[in-house]
Amino acid sequence: MGSVRNPGHIAGQDFLNAIDRCGLPLKLDTPTQGDGNCWVRAVEQQLERPEMEEQLNQRSRQLLSIRKPKRYLALKKSIAEFATTSQHPTIRRAKERLF
């Protein structure tokens, strides 16, 4: 396990345990920058994995065709647009809990 000096390692091991426990097809490549935008950064990292390419829909493929420096903001904008316009019941319930 990690130490007080290396809390990312502890969190990383917790993530690996959760991924294994849930049987998710996710991998931890590099630590995700913890700046409040870590979820979007982690999604971007997973979308870039070679084994994910065949599973991506057209919209995700378009996002990956955007140059790397601008891709993060495009992905963040796409997620925000989905969250604000979606009528999916799960998203609607989540919004109702917030307001």
SSE order and pairing:
Blueprint (H helix, E strand, L loop, with lengths): L6 H16 L15 H10 L10 H8 L2 H18 L3 H10 L1
List the keywords.
single chain; mainly alpha
Please provide a brief summary of the model.
This protein has helices at 7-22, 38-47, 58-65, 68-85, 89-98. By secondary structure, it is mainly alpha-helical.
What this model shows, in words?
The protein is mostly helical and 99 residues long. It folds into 2 domains: 1-31, no CATH class; 35-98, no CATH class. The chain is built from 5 helices and no strands. It has helices spanning 7-22, 38-47, 58-65, 68-85, 89-98. It starts with 6 loop residues before the first helix and ends with a helix. Mean pLDDT is 82; it is low at 1-8.
Mean residue pLDDT: 82
Outline type? globular
Domain count: the total is 2
Rg to the nearest angstrom?
Answer: 16 Å
How does the major sheet shape up? Answer: none
The fraction of residues assigned to DSSP E strands is under 5%
Q: Structural class per helix/strand content?
A: mainly alpha
Order of helices and strands: HHHHH
Helix content: 55-70%
Poorly predicted tracts of residues: 1-8
